[in-house]
Amino acid sequence: MTRAIPWLSSNSSTFPELSSALAEPNGLLAFGDDLSARRIIQAYQLGIFPWFSDGEPVMWWSPDPRAIINISELKINKTLHKVLKRETFTVTLNKSFEQVIEQCADAPFRREETWIVDPMLAAYKKLHQQGQAHSIEVWQDDKLVGGLYGVAVNGYFSGESMFYQQSNASKVALVYLARLLKSIDVELIDCQMLNPFLASMGCIEISREDFITQQSTAKNIIPPEGFWQPQLLTLP
Predict the structure, then answer these.
(1) Residue 106 and residue 86: Cα distance in Å, rounded?
(2) pLDDT given at position 11
(3) N or C: which end of the chain has fewer CB within 10 A?
(4) Strands across the sheet with 133-140, in order?
(5) DSSP state, 166?
């Protein structure tokens, strides 16, 4: 039986129950035309994220299973370990958010299509200005060569995208993010959807129910003042 997907306008007060999300396509919960900062943060509070392409309405997703990295189980292979030990790169937090998200949108491996379309770029740049979206930057000889960005709700961090121009640069960004979150006892990074790269770093899939439980724990962790301030990052 075909099931109608609800439409969320700017006047809609809340999202439908997560259990109403479709199994195919996995996790599609609602359509809409509202990509305001208020709506996006409301979504992340519930473990929902937007994902759509040019010419489509905003699509809101809550997949089951959900991809996460348990920070204690992050995989660092021998090559990456050597890169980290040699301090090949300099890594910063929130020093160049706009450059990171624009590089993610234009990454060569997604030439055909990107979900980081102009409305998404504008929305997440505004979230960054409000202190709710954050970036990790990886530099080599003062050139940005990798990074990632995502949205944080207290200790809960949902990764959106990453890019690299030098081997291992995006992996380094992920390691530094993990260590940063671990410093305040956060145990997971939300990766949303599994892919081979994330799997190689230790990403696994868990049920939506288990994800929401773990997300709630992370949301209850309040980072100290200045935690997300622009800064140089180092490994302990």
Answers:
(1) 29
(2) 82
(3) N
(4) 204-206, 66-70, 188-192, 156-164, 143-153, 133-140, 90-93, 231-233
(5) S
43-64 average pLDDT score: 94
Tell me the pLDDT band of 10, cut-offs 50, 70 and 90: confident
Q: Looking at the predicted structure, is the pLDDT value of residue 190 above 60?
A: yes
DSSP, collapsed to helix, strand or coil, labels residue 224 as: coil
Tell me if residue 167 falls in helix, strand or coil: coil
Confidence of residue 53 (pLDDT cuts 50, 70, 90): confident
CA 235 to chain CA centroid, nearest Å:
21
Amino acid identity of residue 51, one-letter, is W
- Distance, CA of 199 to CA of 59 (rounded, Å): 25
Alpha-carbon distance of 101 to 41, in angstroms, equals 18
- Quote the CA–CA distance of 63 and 27 in Å, as a whole number: 4
Count of Cβ atoms closer than 10 Å to residue 152 Cβ: 21
User: In terms of DSSP H, where are the helices of the chain?
Assistant: 37-45, 78-86, 97-105, 118-129, 169-182, 196-200, 208-219
pTM of this structure: 0.95
Which domains occur in the chain, in start order? Answer: 7-64 (3.30.70.3550), 67-233 (3.40.630.70)
